[in-house]
Amino acid sequence: MGNIIPEWLGNALAALLCWGLWAFFPKLALRSIAPATSVFYEAVGVMLTSIAVVWLLGPRLAGGFQGIMYALLTGIFGTIGLYFFFSAVKTGPLSVISSLTAMYPVVTVFLAVVVLHESINLRQIVGIILAVIAAGLLSWNPR
Q1: Percentage of the chain modeled with pLDDT above 90
Q2: Looking at the predicted structure, is the pLDDT value of residue 123 above 60?
Q3: Integer angstrom CA distances of residue 120 from 110, 114, 116, 128
Q4: Distance (Å, whole) CA 34 – CA 37
Q5: CA gap 86, 30 in Å, rounded
Q6: How many CB atoms lie within 10 A of CB 93?
Q7: Residue 79, class by beta-carbon neighbours within 10 Å (0-12 exposed, 13-18 middle, 19+ buried)?
Q8: What values do phi and psi take at 52, rounded to 5?
Q9: Angle between helices 9-29 and 65-91 (to 10 degrees)
């Protein structure tokens, strides 16, 4: 009989915790530095962590051109998004901004369905709709 808890769940929960901290720390940093400065130092943190991951966990740097290009695009769009996130957090409420920007999986799911031809079931569609409604309710300010 197989394991009831999926193998990937521990990693997903660790990512959830790390990303929660990732979204929290900018509010503290942006109290004393500008968004662009914060992006720079975040990138330094990414580089130091990336070196440690490759050194400690391997595999050594290797791969095909297409994989490397997609990894670079991941960094480029992540950094651009990071700048916009930091700019929003600098002046806005972290609780609302982090909830709203946490809706990025809607874009990911759309691209997975359209580009990768992955399928989603009705339950997942309802979940996405409810998440979008939740994001709207969290960011709605009736003034």
Answers
A1: 46
A2: yes
A3: 10, 11, 12, 10
A4: 5
A5: 8
A6: 14
A7: middle
A8: -65, -40
A9: 50
Angle of the 65-91 helix axis to the 35-57 helix axis, nearest 10: 140
- The DSSP code for 60 is P
Q: How far apart are CA 101 and CA 84, in angstroms?
A: 10
SS (H, E, C) 93-134: CHHHHHHHHCCHHHHHHHHHHHCCCCCCCHHHHHHHHHHHHH
Cis peptide before 6 (omega within 30 of 0): no
86 CB neighbour count, 10 Å cutoff: 22
- Give the pTM: 0.76
Sign of CA dihedral 96, 102, 106, 111: positive
Vertex 136 angle, CA 132 and 140, to 5°: 175
| Residue written as token pair 């660790």 | 14
CA gap 44, 104 in Å, rounded: 24
